Amino acid sequence: MSGVVTVDLHPVFRSDRDIDNAVRSALFRAAGQRATLVEIIPGKGAGTLKKRVLGLLRQPHMRKLYRKVEVDPKNEGRILIHL
Predict the structure, then answer these.
(1) At what angle are helices 48-58 and 16-32 packed, to 10 degrees?
(2) How far apart (Å, rounded) are the C-alpha atoms in residues 72 and 49?
(3) Are 75 and 41 in contact (CB under 8 A)?
(4) What is the rounded average pLDDT of the residues 57-62?
(5) Closest CA to 39 of 63, 7, 10
(6) Domain boundaries in the chain?
(7) Residue 36, phi then psi, degrees to nearest 5
(8) Please, which pLDDT band fits residue 2 given cuts at 50, 70 and 90?
(9) Mean of the pLDDT values across residues 27-50?
(10) Which CATH topology does 4-82 take?
C-alpha cells in the first residue's frame, strides 16, 4: 500500500525504548514516503501498550509530526495516525 505505513508492536512490546523507536521511525518513514496514514498495531490485550503509544504521541515533539490520532473505531487494537 502506498499511502499507509503499518507497524506491528507485538515483537517489541517488552522494551519501552524499542516501542518508542518503532513508532518514531514509522512516522519518519511515512513522511519520507509521503504516506497519509500510519497504522500502529499494539493489539487488544490489557491496553497497556496502547496507552504507552498514545502517551508517546501526546508529547509536544511528537505532535508536530502528525495531524490527528485516533483509535480505530472498528478495531480497538489499532491506532491510526493521520499525517
Answers:
(1) 60
(2) 15
(3) no
(4) 93
(5) 7
(6) 4-82
(7) -105, -10
(8) low
(9) 91
(10) Ribosomal Protein S8; Chain: A, domain 1 (3.30.1370)
- Reported for 55-64, long-range contacts at CB under 8 A and 24+ positions apart, including other chains, are 56/19, 56/20, 56/23, 57/23, 57/81, 62/24, 62/27
Residues sharing a CB contact under 8 Å with residue 1, sequence separation 6 or more, in sequence order:
none
Give the separation between CA 83 and CA 16, rounded to whole angstroms: 23
Q: Given a cut of 50, is residue 7 above it in pLDDT?
A: yes
Q: Please, which residues bridge with residue 80 across strands?
A: 39, 70
Q: Give me 63's grid cell.
A: 505532535
d(CA 42, CA 45): 8
